[in-house]
Amino acid sequence: MYLGAHMSISGGVHNALIEGESIGCTAVQLFTKSNNRWQAPPLKDSEIQTFYDVRQKTGIDKLVVHTGYLINLANPSDNWQKSMDSMETELVRAHQLGLEMVVLHPGSHLGQGEEFGLKRIADSLNQLYAKHPSINVKTLLEVTAGQGTNLGYTFEQLAQIISMTHDKSKYGICLDTCHMFAAGYDIRTEKAYNNTLDKLEKALGIDLVMAIHLNDTYGQLGGKKDRHTHIGEGTLGTEPFRLLLNDPRFRNVPMLLETPKDDGIQSDIKNLAVLKSLLEQ
Fold first, then answer.
1. Could you give the CA distance from residue 178 to residue 187 in angstroms, rounded to a whole number?
2. Helix H or strand E encompassing 173
3. What residues pair up with 65 in beta bridges, in sequence order?
4. In total, how many domains does the chain have?
5. From residue 7, how far is each of 25, 147, 232, 275, 279 by CA, in Å?
6. What does the alpha-carbon distance between residue 57 and residue 43 come to, in Å, rounded to a whole number?
7. Which of 75-93 are b and which e, b meaning 16 or more Cβ less than 10 Å from the residue's Cβ?
């Protein structure tokens, strides 16, 4: 299993790996820059080398970048260019660090309509990859909860975005248990889980799932509320996580906690212990 959590980069991007190793992670998600700023100073050669050295030392090979929260590639306003520049920075930094996947919240149409937004996201990604043909970093479109004018809350919307991209090999999907449930995909029982996975297979194909966020929620089914909580302490309970963790189709897919860090890293230790207790031998 590739199981881990989102780790802090305080003190340098390499510290996410050190922190992850300290609690037994076999996969780590990280930001490569501040998540609430458009840009960051360029990575220094020494930072890049340290990251490579620490990655080799820890042996954590399943690494996923999460892009900053300000990016909105569906934005109809002047901030669209800021989003483009910021997403370009994310792809370049991931490439420099030798990372293969960046998770992106698809975007919000801000009142311009879903068709407009979906096309703008695909067009934006096409432009970015055309500008950097040597970058092999994949963009993983994350399933969203669907709040407000956010896009990507159905498997069909994600499929529509990818269908409009020029190089399909550059894309994958990141599932999120909290978001899926909020968007109306029930996974609380084996029957509901299988039904949801059948919908996923039909719309996108299971093979496109390249990362999974494991989060319980205190939101309701179809409530479109993005409310993360600790594993087993929310509306989902533990059954969806047992089903995911033991699904052979996701054996090589990194599964990552984004649960609250009320007690810092101790919260991750607690949630990882719950997840590991659900693994079947």
1. 10
2. strand 171-176
3. 30, 102
4. 1
5. 10, 26, 21, 17, 22
6. 21
7. bbeeebebbbebbbbbbbb
Element (H, E) at 254: none
Q: Structural domain of residue 33, as residue ranges?
A: 3-277
Phi-psi region of 67 (alpha: psi -120 to 50; beta: other; left: phi over 0): beta
Q: Give phi and psi for 92, each to the nearest 5.
A: -65, -45
Q: How far apart are CA 10 and CA 200, in angstroms?
A: 36
Structure tokens at 78: 């002047």
Please report, in angstroms and rounded to a whole number, the separation of the first and last CA atoms in the chain. 12
For 180, counting Cβ atoms within 10 Å of its Cβ (0-12 exposed, 13-18 middle, 19+ buried), the class is buried
The amino acid present at 3, given as its one-letter code, is: L
Q: Which DSSP state fits 134?
A: T
Cα separation, 56 vs 14, whole angstroms: 11
Q: Which amino acid belongs to residue 67?
A: T
Residue 174's CATH number: 3.20.20.150
- 5 pLDDT band (50/70/90 cuts)? very high
pLDDT at residue 281 is higher than 80: no
pLDDT at res. 20: 98
Strands 209-214 and 255-257: parallel
**If we measure between CA atoms, which residue out of 38, 44, 96 comes closest to residue 65?**
96
Residue 35 and residue 68 in contact, taking contact as beta carbons nearer than 8 Å: yes
The mean pLDDT value of the chain amounts to: 97
Copy the structure tokens of residue 116.
């407009």
Q: Residue 77 — left, alpha, or beta (φ > 0 → left; ψ -120 to 50 → alpha)?
A: beta
Distance separating alpha carbons of residues 233 and 216, to the nearest angstrom:
7
Is the pTM of the predicted complex or chain greater than 0.85? yes
